[in-house]
Design a protein that fits this description.
Layout: H1 13-27, E1 32-35, E2 38-41, H2 43-68, H3 78-100, H4 102-116, H5 121-152, H6 161-203, H7 205-213, H8 219-277, H9 288-328, H10 332-347, E3 353-354, E4 357-358, H11 361-396, E5 402-403, E6 406-407, H12 410-448
Antiparallel strand pairs: 1-2, 3-4, 5-6
Length: 449
């Protein structure tokens, strides 16, 4: 049963994740129900998830067959075909992986619910402002973009999976980001408690020496440190579980984001270049749906990287706080406990990754750099193809001035001069021969007389 929830006023894990779980359930990627504080598989939702996955997979496979093998669907040139293939293959991979790992994902959500149960109410309220805004506003904005895409584009039967693909990927990404934000809040709680212990040791040391060290043998501080160390270990294990469950999805998201951004930017550049060369107007409104998809991809990957980077920094800050607390106390038992805590932190590298690929700012920079590189390569291919077409056109269009096959050029002039000279010489020879004949005739007549 769902607990009562209010917008921006979450009080526990269920009310915090309610919008995300609701939208995921509508898309058929949340085959669970919550009984009390326990996640369970819902048979009806599980059957719905299998049905949606089956229909979606068959539909996408048919579209891929028609595009690549039967070639009855023409989506455009080679870059456009590659873009469609990357989108459909990545999407069907995500859907299958989400179904296969549904049990592991349920166990992960149960673990995060248990870990986050110790968060104060104020932390839930702060998280709800971010998570509720992001989930609700993002989901409905994505729906508006998909409706606009269906209206503006030449929507045919093979484009029907595209809106579902974008909504499914968006919802899975938001689920991952929500989990990261909750774990970040758990790390922050541990760090805040360590800071409070440090202030207690520094400010009240004489009082503590009299009341705790001598009378209670530091039981309060030791119990707090052991409890925090145990909580840190549980949260660190949860981070590793999150990396295992979502690693394939994050890899597919990175590949899809990289391919979509690269090809979309390439299409913009080529369309703009074509419009300039043909002296036509580049209509931004026609490409508005693709531009909005590109913007959503950029915002989504930036938010994921920001959440993972914040979580990593918060986990590293715990180590700094432990060292500060270690330098602030001289008690042997507390020092030993802090040293054990420090060793645990060093051996538990709390980073959010996907199959060894760390999701941080470095990854974002690498994506931007590689998009720029491949975009330049595609533009070079476009320019080369245009030049080749121009060259073929030049070869097949002999732009010469002629008259019934007779080319009017220097060769014609040379031929005319040559022929005139030849015929002039022939005429001169005829003239000389005729003159000599006349002289010979006159001489013969003179001799006879």
């Amino acid at each position: 049963m769902w607990k009562k929830w209010q917008l921006f006023r979450a009080t526990d894990f269920q009310s915090l994740m309610y919008p995300c779980f609701t939208f995921s359930n509508i898309l058929g990627i949340f085959p669970y129900k919550i009984s009390g504080s326990t996640f369970e598989i819902s048979k009806q939702r599980y059957i719905l998830a299998i049905f949606i996955l089956g229909v979606f997979s068959i539909y996408v496979l048919v579209v891929l067959y028609e595009i690549n093998i039967a070639r009855t669907i023409y989506v455009g040139n080679v870059p456009k075909t590659l873009e469609r293939n990357c989108l459909y293959i990545s999407a069907i991979f995500m859907a299958v992986v989400a179904y296969i790992l549904s049990g592991s994902r349920m166990h992960l959500l149960q673990t995060i619910m248990n870990v986050s149960s110790k968060l104060p109410l104020n932390s839930y309220k702060k998280l709800s402002k971010l998570i509720h805004t992001k989930d609700i506003l993002g989901f409905f904005l994505q729906i508006i973009i998909e409706v606009f895409y269906c209206i503006r584009s030449n929507f045919t039967w093979y484009k029907m999976p595209v809106p579902y693909i974008h909504l499914m990927v968006f919802q899975l990404d938001m689920l991952y980001m929500n989990c990261v934000c909750i774990l970040n809040a758990c790390f922050k709680r541990i760090d805040d408690k360590l800071i409070n212990l440090r202030e207690l040791v520094i400010n009240d040391e004489p009082h503590l020496l009299r009341r705790i060290y001598h009378e209670h043998k530091n039981s309060f501080l030791l119990m707090e440190l052991k409890a925090l160390k145990k909580q840190h270990l549980v949260i660190s294990d949860t981070v590793q579980m999150l990396n295992k469950v979502f690693s394939l999805h994050i890899l597919a998201t990175i590949i899809m984001t990289f391919s979509q951004l690269t090809f979309h930017l390439y299409f913009y550049i080529t369309e703009w270049k074509t419009s300039v060369s043909e002296n036509s107007t580049f209509n931004l409104f026609v490409h508005l749906s693709i531009m909005m998809h590109t913007t959503i991809y950029c915002i989504r990957i930036i938010l994921i990287v920001w959440a993972c980077e914040s979580g990593k920094d918060r986990a590293m800050k715990i180590g700094i706080t432990v060292h500060d607390l270690l330098n602030s106390t001289s008690d042997k038992e507390i020092t030993e406990e802090l040293q054990l805590f420090s060793v645990q932190i060093l051996h538990r590298e709390n980073v959010f990754s996907a199959k060894g690929l760390i999701v941080d700012v470095t990854l974002l920079i690498a994506i931007v750099r590689n998009i720029s590189a491949y975009l330049l390569i595609l533009v070079q291919f476009f320019i080369t193809a245009r030049l080749q077409l121009f060259s073929v056109q030049i070869l097949h269009r002999e732009n010469i001035f002629s008259a019934k096959g007779l080319n009017v050029d220097v060769t014609l002039l040379i031929a005319i001069v040559s022929k005139v000279t030849t015929y002039l010489l022939i005429l001169i020879q005829f003239f000389i021969t005729a003159h000599l004949c006349n002289i010979t005739t006159v001489n013969n007549v003179t001799q006879i007389t």
